[in-house]
Amino acid sequence: MSITQELLNQVDALARRAGDAIMEIYGRDFAVEHKQDNSPLTEADAAAHHIIADGLARLELKAPVLSEEDTAGFAGADEHGRYWLVDPLDGTKEFIKRNGEFTVNIALIENGKPVLGVVYAPALNTGYVAAEGLGAFKTEGDAAPVAISVAEHQTGTPWRVVGSRSHGGGELPALLEKLGEHQLVPMGSSLKLCLVAENAADIYPRLGPTSLWDTGAAQCVVEQAGGTVVQLSGEPLSYANTREVLNPYFLVLGENDVNWPALFA
User: How is domain 5-147 classified at the CATH fold level?
Assistant: First the structure.
């Protein structure tokens, strides 16, 4: 089954339904638990997960679901190498801080590559959608979707560097020194990648831990907007090995000719 605009619209609507459930909880008191890795968990994570899992099961395109909130229920990709990759609430720390920088992430992976991605920030009422053959788009409020694309960094201007709001990296200062004049733009959740996709930033170096579901949907948005998400080895960030859910370090680039190996020489 090919990816259609109808399928992308259906996944976008599903992410927004999950976002509505998240916002209902966001507007009142809620308890915070902690997983074994000490990462926070709220009832909003579970509520969004159930809405998305039920919704994906109703789509014409059937594929297994790997969700952060149900890793045990995932048996692997299907015979076509496809699976849905879901983070029902990316940026739980931002949710708890109530700063609005959290998202719903839904991606379709095919042979290790994200071919459809939806990122929705319910508190900001801002969404990003992308799919192979369809391009990348941003929606704000009730406005019509607007096509987005990366742009080359302008020589002589400071680099616009996205940094994590809640997760610093000990190697980042050294990289920034090599990069030269720059402006650091703090942001939470997968919105960091989307800033590069919409040309609101030039580069996002991630020199700290992330999981597959943190990046899959937003990587699709970046790539369909003309950008690159690359491991420090030079290989694209891949989703083929679901037995290892942690990503390697990576860079999100708004242009393909950045001399990124020199940053780590």
Answer: Fructose-1,6-Bisphosphatase; Chain A, domain 1 (3.30.540)
Proportion of the chain above pLDDT 70, given as a percent: 92
Tokens of 225: 């907007």
Question: Which residue bears the tokens 């694309």?
Answer: 149
Strand stretches in the chain, DSSP E: 32-34, 40-42, 65-67, 82-90, 103-110, 113-121, 126-131, 135-140, 146-147, 159-164, 182-187, 203-206, 228-231, 250-253
**Which of these, 198, 264, 199, lies nearest to 230 by C-alpha position?**
264
When pLDDT is averaged across residues 150-155 and rounded to a whole number, the result is 84
Q: Band of the pLDDT at 30, cuts 50, 70, 90?
A: confident
- Distance between CA 234 and CA 230 in Å, rounded? 6
All residues at 6 or more sequence positions from 72 whose CB lies less than 8 Å from its CB, including other chains: none
Q: What is the CATH number of domain 159-263?
A: 3.40.190.80
Residue 114, classed as helix, strand or coil, is strand
Residue 140 phi, psi (nearest 5): -120, 125
Which helix (H) or strand (E) element contains residue 214? helix 212-224
Quick one: average pLDDT of 38-48? 83
Query: Do β-strands 40-42 and 32-34 pair in parallel, antiparallel, or remain unpaired?
Result: antiparallel
**What's the confidence (pLDDT) of residue 265?**
57
The answer for residues whose C-beta is within 8 angstroms of residue 104's C-beta and 6 or more apart is: 15, 16, 18, 19, 22, 48, 52, 87, 88, 89, 90, 118, 119, 120, 122
